[in-house]
Amino acid sequence: MSHQTPALLVRGHAFSFLCPPSPTSFTTLVLFSMREVISLQVGQAGVQIGNACWELYTTEHGITPDGRLKEGSPSHNDQGFSTFFSPTGSGKHVPRSLYIDLEPGVVDEVRNGTYRGLFHPETLVTGKEDAANNYARGHYTVGKELIDSVMDKIRRLADNCSGLQGFFIFHSFGGGTGSGFGALLLERLSTDYGKKAKLEFCVYPAPKLSSSVVEPYNSVLTTHTTLEHSDCSFMVDNEAIYDICKKNLGVSSPGFTNLNRLIAQVVSSVTASLRFDGSLNVDLNEFQTNLVPFPRIHFPLATYAPIISKAKAGHENNSVSELTFSCFESGNQMVKCDPREGKFMACCLLFRGDVVPKDANAAIAQIKTKRTIQFVDWCPTGFKLGICNEPPADVPGADLAPVSRSLCMLSNTTAIAAAWSSLDHKFDLLYSKRAFVHWYVGEGMEEGEFSEAREDLAALEKDYEEVGIDSADAEEEGEY
What we know:
2 domains, six-stranded parallel beta sheet, four-stranded mixed beta sheet, 16 helices, disordered N terminus
């Protein structure tokens, strides 16, 4: 953020130039350093969130549903969108993406839907039988049959990249394919692409809404398996987003399309700096460097503003300061938890549109003085700022009002530990009676994996508790 000697970012580390380069040489550097990202959508939730994301990306870049650039599209002069789209010889732009589900139903909707001409048919991968909400089926039996074919397709996508930066994995914690196959995929990615960034967007089981009885089992098992393989996991829960759609957008009974379009705006904000120019762009590795203080503490909380309907849009100010304050309100959070109950370790503010660094810095200064935001004492400043010049796009028929600027806040806070303790409690209730365990063991899973996974989650809760303890208190404890 400082205006010192320009630095070259290599995997999140800044290397100063010996002398300031000329503007032309720097432009050349930027043009030829392609940083592609491959998106992997796994299971029903992953596929449906993916649909909302690609709908939004194509709108933002002026790409038609069959993959061609619209006349007069801004992307004609900007190659940034090649991060997510691969240009073909025939002038089409194909998503660097893979849709994976163990049964064909949800992916068939993509094959026959509005965007059927956008995706390469080989990147829509389906099996013949589903995971039946069973982690073990997704990870051990049914999933094992599909994984080699999936890894082969990922290798082809990676070979088509000149500087692959990493992977985005979209999946749910609660479903059989999302949890089981999602975990298996992350294990294999870790083996084959160890040095590449792996960022997850995961649908976490909502506190009150539930799509299946065994969600707590699937969630604890997949968290345990992926903990060491994922670099950063952005969690969303359907209940929090459902409430946002009802209260902020006035949608009386939100469906998955409403929820996923809102999630897509968050994903777009996170990826905007990879696809568009900005005065303070944030690189994929910078997210990890700034948000993940310890490898296991990698579950940032996402908040978005403004979330307003078209009817209210004309009556709102949406100044940089207002957006910043809105992002510290629990009503705009994508996971149900109370940030006042925890301490912040890091906070990444990603602005889009008509925003200048001076206003953003002033808003942060206001937040620090007016709000009782507690940071852990070993990381007292903790704010990272990103500004992308491209304003958020308006998807036709969507609930959100078109706005000139927006803010997505990613914060690593100890408050999210409440989500883990709620999940662990539900797991304990089921497992105390060994309810449904035979379905998992019947698919070749060892029963010991349940207690091993639960112990790992207890350790994760403990990790969050320990990072929130003040250094002085920790030293006192260590003396006894």
